[in-house]
Design a protein that fits this description.
Mean pLDDT: 89
Distance between the termini: 91 Å
Strand content: under 5%
Helix content: over 70%
Number of strands: 0
Order of helices and strands: HHH
Low-confidence stretches: none
Largest sheet: none
Radius of gyration: 29 Å
């Protein structure tokens, strides 16, 4: 009677295939994590840039003072247009602001 087992070539083929699949999975996982980390950093930098640009408009037109005084100063409309330009140029759908006294 002959034993029905895998020969050395078949064992090496199975080991090689399993190793290649495991290595591909590990490399794909590392790539996925690195890609997501970099994309998240890019989104955060982009959001910071938009917020900083809007902050300059707030500072230039003293919007905080307008809000505190509960008045719309003479520069309000110009400030609003500048904020809309920031919104449009950065391809942001909505640009909200919150004022803390």
């Amino acid at each position: 009677m002959m034993k029905k087992g895998l020969g050395i070539r078949q064992k090496m083929a199975v080991i090689t295939t399993v190793s290649m699949v495991a290595l591909a999975f590990i490399i794909a996982s590392i790539g996925y994590v690195q890609f997501n980390r970099n994309v998240l950093k890019s989104y955060v930098r982009y959001a910071e840039m938009v917020v900083e640009s809007a902050g300059y408009v707030f500072d230039d037109y003293d919007i905080g003072d307008m809000i505190a005084a509960r008045t719309m100063g003479e520069d309000y409309e110009t400030a609003r247009l500048d904020l809309n330009r920031v919104k449009d140029a950065s391809d942001v759908k909505y640009l909200y602001s919150i004022y803390f006294e």
